[in-house]
Amino acid sequence: MTLDHMPRIVVDDVAKHFTLRHTHTAKDWVVWNLKGRKEARSDDFVALHDISFTVGDGEAVALLGLNGSGKSTLLKLVSGVMRPDTGKIRVRGNIAGLIEVGAGFHPDLTGRENVYLNGAILGMTEQQIDEKFDEIVAFSEIEEFIDTEVKFYSSGMFLRLAFAVAVHTDPDVFLVDEILAVGDEPFQKKCLAKIRELRDAGKALVIVSHDLDMVARLCSRGILLERGRMVMDGPIDEAVATMRGER
Ligand SMILES: Nc1ncnc2c1ncn2[C@@H]1O[C@H](COP(=O)(O)OP(=O)(O)OP(=O)(O)O)[C@@H](O)[C@H]1O
User: Fold this and answer.
1) Residue 76: how many CA atoms within 13 Å on its side-chain side?
2) CA 114 / ligand 1 centre spacing (Å)
């Protein structure tokens, strides 16, 4: 297989667990000691198991599922901010996107300084950021506030700048977690148009959203998670219908 035909994203038999530590009072602690420390003081919680799928160039895949089903955890594993306990994740090329808005922003720096900081985190050189700077700011439509410290930004302004930087990094893989919700409607439309543009340019997209109408329009494929297990990987219409309980 030539590199061009290899999947962009490979998720191979991945599992992730978390340790849930319970809060205990001093009395609980004494009782626990008196009882001979038999009960576990933390629970092992399996957030994802047996997850395998691939995503190719030009594919837009929606991760669907009820609250707590593991969508955001899976997206974080794909992005590399978290590592799986078992299994493998391989992503070729540059990754960008919006997973935790503002995660790469420093509150005491201005919008302008944060564009440089965030661009660098996403792998751009200073010269590349210089070249794209005006376009990024124009896309965000927050020119007036670009020299204001971002701690004074509203959540929508944060989103605008973070999205603008992310889409201007020329990513091969674009990941989006339920974030467009804080943008106003005109900006959401603009973001969706930009995401479509990336898809049509052959980028691989993975989108987490509860907005089934939006993902039905944007994605071709849906992966449905239920309590950390993949229960479906198929055409988006079927995945959305299953989510809606129509089949
Ligand atoms: N860092 C963590 N430590 C402990 N548990 C976690 C952690 N991150 C996620 N979880 C747990 O893993 C499960 C899956 O969470 P996740 O955020 O991936 O779900 P989700 O499908 O994105 O949910 P939602 O639709 O509500 O955003 C949840 O039960 C959550 O409490």
Assistant:
1) 15
2) 28
The response to whether residue 65 sits with its C-beta less than 6 Å from ligand 1 reads: yes
ipTM of the complex, rounded to two decimals: 0.96
User: Among 73, 101, 206, which is best to mutate for testing ligand 1, by the most ligand atoms less than 8 A from CB?
Assistant: 73
In the reported structure, the alpha carbon of residue 166 is separated from the centroid of ligand 1 by a whole-number distance in angstroms of 24
Domain boundaries, the chain: 57-85+93-243
Domain 57-85+93-243 has CATH 3.40.50.300: yes
SS3 103: coil
**pTM (2 decimals)?**
0.86
Rounded to 10 degrees, the C-alpha dihedral 7/84/76/230 comes to 70
How many other β-carbons are positioned within 10 Å of the β-carbon of residue 204?
27
* CA 86 – CA 113 distance, rounded (Å): 38
* pLDDT tens-digit readout, 87-97: 999 999 989 88
Q: 71: Cβ below 6 Å to ligand 1? A: yes
Question: Residue with the nearest Cα to atom 26 of ligand 1?
Answer: 67
